[in-house]
């Protein structure tokens, strides 16, 4: 899991599955997955199986703001042990290009440093 994503112990145990699902969900405007784009700030999983994901978008006018949360809910709900998914959208802290992972920078043709 990325160092800049806050994650609790229960979610950390299934982090490989979470990453796999999040890397398959793309921001259609930038054509990079939401994990490597750095849109995810926090993931928690409670003892009842509720996964709470806190994320942002690249800007307030993002065209996928209405559809992306539903896609995340559907995808993460497929993971064993997750019974419910809540997606919370926040605007603070604001997303910055520096949140893009090294892989994401290379994929977008941006200097990986």
Automatic annotation (TrEMBL):
Pfam families: FeS_assembly_P (PF01883). SUPFAM superfamilies: Fe-S cluster assembly (FSCA) domain-like. Residues 19-89 form the MIP18 family-like domain. Transmembrane segments: none annotated. InterPro entries: Fe-S_Maturation_MIP18 (IPR052339), FSCA_dom_sf (IPR034904), MIP18-like (IPR002744). This is Metal-sulfur cluster assembly factor.
